[in-house]
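Marked as duplicate of an earlier ticket. Keeping the data here for the record.
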Amino acid sequence: MDVCEICDDQQAATIPPNFDGIHQNCPRCGEFKVSGTANSIMRQGLGKEKRARLSGWVREQNRAGAVPMITTDNLQKILARPLPSVAERATALLIEAERGLNNLGDRFNIKDPKFLAATYSSTQKDVTFLLGLLKEQGLAEAKEMGGGCEILPRGYIRLDEVRKRASSSSQGFVAMWFHKDLDQIYSTGFEAGVFKAGYDPIRMDRVEHINKIDDEIIKQINASRFVVADFTGHRGGVYFEAGYALGLGIPVFWTCQKGDMGELHFDIRQFNCIDWATPEELSNRLSVRLEAVLGPGPNKA
């Protein structure tokens, strides 16, 4: 066990990495990967508030089923995201409290460090304050001196309402060719563009799961606000994922590297496709289009 590279206050399990960096699973932050260069920047000094933002972002990604990679390309974007409102942080506490409960009425422990991350809190005092807000609304309350708490009936009703607001999800599913030559394009193009528009990108090969791959793809698309479908390389899976999203009424944003535009299937050519040459061009045009069609995402600074 080693000190967590993100929160710097929990003992985390270090997993042997297959890349130049660190892979850890922290009881507060969750599971994450961080590149060697990004980790060097983090070690130069991050205050409690910035570490809380990183921790909260990792916990959000874990809830979506992803094990995120913190890189020099996305580190500053994550830290620049605005802190969720107090109401949003209280709701996040309620959502995290329900995770892992087997039965209605089961209790959770508010002192579990995961609640610090889930609520973007830098101190336990903040978490306790948020629990007080939930109590005032009749959603959850403390039951034991040791930290045992219970979600109240009205709290479960609120959770049902939150789940029904799936259309307000901040997640954007990126369907693309998983070729090593496109990894940098993803980081500085797709990921950067989605972040810039205020949304959270997710790519299927970075999601940890035990389901059949097709089932997990469908699950992640269902949970997404939109899909970005890139047809560079003309992968059959991208055509499937875009078609599935269209069938559900989920907005699809079409992209393709300029050199591959001539091979687009005729069914796709009718759509307004972002034809990109560089990752910087892709990032800028994608963020502009996302905001024009959907509006700024919930994480827009």
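See parent ticket for discussion. The chain has a mean pLDDT of 88.
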